[in-house]
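Supplementary Text 2. Reproducibility record for the structural model of the 340-residue chain.

All settings were left at their defaults, and a single model was retained for analysis rather than an ensemble. We include the record here because the model underlies the residue-level annotations in Supplementary Table 4.
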Amino acid sequence: MGARAFLTGISGPILTSEERLFLREARPWGFILFKRNLDNPYQVADLVRELKGTIEFAEAPVLIDQEGGRVQRLAPPHWPAYPAGAVFGALYDGDTRAGLRAAWLSARLIAADLAALGITVDCLPLADVPVAGADAVIGDRAYGAAPDKVAAIARAVADGLAAGGVLPVVKHIPGHGRATADSHHRLPVVETAAADLDKSDFAAFRSLADLPMAMTAHVVFSAIDAAQPATTSATMIQQVIRNGIGFQGLLMSDDVSMNALSGSIAERSRAAIAAGCDVVLHCNGKLDEMRAVADAVPDLAGPALARAERALAARRPAQPFDAAAGRAELDDLIAGVRLA
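Retained model, structure tokens:
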């Protein structure tokens, strides 16, 4: 049997017997790791192997959010610290080539860390374009406030990951930068005119539409669909993400356990699939919710399966890279950068 249309987290650093049985029966398409799952490199590598061994799908992706700055699941002392996205933007403003080189190097070094553990997908880059007055949930994670600059740095990050054998996931499509609320806690509503969104927020993603995977934003864009956030809006997914932006890769929801969404976990999962998400992402590791997601989503099939297969086929072997030299070069490039 094939995989079901969801990605799941687990509760801790070791699989419980209940989780192991659930994964075998539920057949998720892949997994996502958080700090609660990560103790040390040996433990993480063992956990990744065990996760993949529970299902009959050798290519199952293992995801993580490893951006640098505030969002870094793998952290010191076992893994290096990486700069926030805004550092690359600040460097880019003074020296475009240096900013892009630093972004590429950081991503390439992150990819080396992930590949050593068997982690194959990073939920990066961000293409969110922040504005004054927006919630700080994006903040210094963003590369800048101009869509062309954001897209250029995001491309360098995606290329750095790909060069290290790790697939990128661009987020949060079609844009979280204007949100005046953190979607982890409540539903943001953006009231900007559609034409303005198209020229700014959506434009950054349009330049990245060829990337293999993207993650949705739990944000309402009232000028286009006043009733539903992008994750559960067929209008946003078909009219904006697929047609306007032109993204044809695998589309995953952001975490359906976040408070921005309403209804039960099963209702949220069904709504995301019905709207056009290919797979549902569930992160908190609560087994009762994991079961509800698995019961609510279909097997991957048809266009969604084709997009999933194309996404995984885009992964290439890591190119040769001197990590020590790369780290030294990155440290030198960002040494003088100070964020306001």
